[in-house]
Design a protein that fits this description.
By secondary structure, this protein is mainly beta. The chain contains seven helices and 32 strands.
Length: 550
């Protein structure tokens, strides 16, 4: 449903390049379009600038030199009604948006002169822009590790000086975590922008663009505060009711731990029998299972009806996505009884205008307003609709791998001891691993047999170099990377050995090797100068207790 009408508007475009502002008024603008969503915006503008200074004229194009530079271009667009349409004493407000330029075009219009030479008289500029986070964070692929930090700390560390953030989500962003790993790979495709949206979606948060502050807000729920703006019948053309697809599946949360497996169904009344989505976990922590059940229960709420509102004139009182509005109080705008008198939230706003070619350039060039062939539509949702609209995103790929050293506080610094640390929240034992790449931060990892069967009890020792797999908020030892000091044996003897104890001078070794191609087995205990050994070789059994000379 679409409606085009002529509308006189005051449109102002400001381009700020390297701190210098260039203002373009409506008389220079040939076309503009704005797509505004609850989560961000994009737009495009084409405008014409005259430069006749080379022919002795007074018009000079001051934008060209800055426009062709690669410098970041900040954009502000303001749109405001000019004519009074709905009240005797209008008090117009402007719709204002800001963004960063992503694409630029330039066409120079050449005209012939009486002498036969051609000169440039007009330049037609074009820009496309988006909200700051969408432009910058989609090129941002950090690989960073945080310990004992909150998600808010992480966001603050990556917002830069062009992105403004606000927070009203303590449960989702204010809790400290032992590990947060932002491991993004440009070749994987998921940027920091994707990572943020992935987290918001996965934790049932709300991410919105605040058009009043031109910044972003993280919240636990949609904002329902404020007095709804009463829309005026004279501005409206038509209304279409949209009924989104209803969820037809149940969910089953499965926990695959062998000691306490769980199967927890999550149902909803609109599901079709036998249709379900299974979520597979493998965790010994029961609270994690319950948290996932709560999340899936919240996700199974189907969406409320939505309304597409088409306009026939630009309103005097402007609004942006996130604003609360009310439709006029008459049957024509009752939307089949769905919206009668109830406050609605603006979820998106789409508008575009183009100057008719029938208007001569000289008629409007220096005017602060112009007559546009204009379109405008608005997507509305119920005030209490829990559905969160987000742009397309892709999940980040975990795990990624780094090297670390096992930490143990047992014994002296030189002692190759092992230590299990008990988590006070979960009562689970874990290693501590120091990660040199990330400023020697220490992270937890599960204390388990790793790749050995359970009848081998060989915990990783202090200082052992290990390959660590890093997930978003978890880590685990993938494999061991080096030999213990003194463990490696000469290749000629094809020896293998098992070393246990704190150091080679304070421990026990089991060795098997070949002498003259005959097998030898040696078990030796060492404590400083004291040694005891049992050695089996060809025709000989040696049992020896000895104190080595100083």
């Amino acid at each position: 449903m679409e409606h085009t009408f002529d509308e006189r508007l005051a449109v102002t475009l400001t381009l700020t390049i390297a701190g210098k502002a260039h203002e373009i008024i409506a008389g220079s603008i040939k076309r503009f379009a704005l797509e505004l969503w609850s989560w961000g915006l994009e737009g495009e503008v084409e405008f014409l600038l005259t430069d006749n200074s080379a022919q002795g004229g007074k018009e000079k194009d001051a934008l060209l030199a800055d426009f062709i530079k690669p410098d970041l271009v900040e954009v502000t667009v303001e749109v405001k009604a000019v004519l009074a349409e709905a009240s005797a004493r209008p008090s117009h407000t402007a719709l204002k948006v800001q963004g960063l330029v992503t694409d630029k075009t330039l066409v120079e219009e050449v005209v012939p002169t009486t002498s036969g030479a051609s000169v440039i008289l007009h330049r037609r500029y074009g820009i496309r822009f988006q909200d700051a986070a969408r432009v910058l964070w989609r090129q941002h692929y950090p690989c960073a590790l945080y310990t004992s930090k909150t998600l808010k700390d992480v966001l603050e560390a990556h917002k830069g000086d062009k992105i403004r953030l606000a927070y009203d989500w303590d449960a989702g962003l204010g809790t400290s975590h032992s590990i947060i790993f932002v491991g993004l790979n440009p070749e994987g495709g998921a940027s920091f922008y994707d990572w943020v949206l992935w987290y918001v979606h996965g934790h049932r948060g709300v991410w919105t663009y605040d058009y009043a502050t031109q910044g972003y807000k993280f919240a636990a729920a949609k904002d329902t505060s404020g007095t709804p703006l009463k829309l005026v019948d004279e501005n409206l053309q038509g209304l279409e009711v949209l009924l989104p697809e209803v969820i037809r599946h149940d969910v089953t949360v499965l926990n695959a731990t062998a000691e306490s497996p769980q199967t927890q169904p999550v149902t909803q009344k609109q599901a079709v029998a036998g249709i379900r989505q299974d979520v597979l976990l493998c965790t010994p922590i029961s609270d994690d299972v319950q948290a996932r059940v709560d999340l899936e229960t919240a996700r199974l709420k189907w969406r409320s009806p939505e309304m597409e509102l088409v306009w026939r004139s630009f309103p005097e009182k402007t609004f942006a996505p996130g604003a609360l509005v009310k439709l006029p109080d008459n049957a024509a705008w009752g939307a089949a009884g769905l919206t009668a008198g109830e406050p609605l939230r603006v979820r998106s706003l789409h508008l575009s205008g183009e100057v008719s070619d029938e208007q001569g350039q000289e008629e409007v060039y220096n005017d602060s307003n112009a007559l546009f062939s204009f379109r405008m539509s608005t997507r509305l949702e119920r005030k209490d609709d829990p559905y969160v609209d987000l742009p397309a995103w892709q999940p980040p790929a975990y795990p990624r791998y780094v090297e670390g050293f096992i930490v143990s506080e047992q014994g002296a610094d030189k002692d190759e001891t092992w230590q299990a640390y008990t988590d006070s929240k979960t009562s689970l034992d874990g290693y501590k691993v120091k990660i040199p790449l990330f400023a020697d931060q220490i992270i937890p990892a599960p204390f388990n047999p790793n790749l050995l069967p359970g009848h081998f009890y060989f915990p990783a020792y202090k200082g052992e170099r290990v390959l660590v797999a890093l997930g978003f908020q978890t880590a685990w030892i993938k494999r061991f990377l080096d030999w213990r000091t003194g463990a490696r044996m000469p290749q000629d003897g094809q020896g293998v050995q098992l070393l246990v104890g704190k150091t080679p001078e304070n421990g026990t070794a089991l060795k098997h090797f070949y002498t003259d191609d005959k097998p030898v087995f040696l078990m030796q205990r060492t404590n400083a100068k004291d040694t005891q050994k049992i050695q089996l070789d060809e025709g000989t059994l040696l049992i020896q207790v000895k104190e080595e000379p100083s």
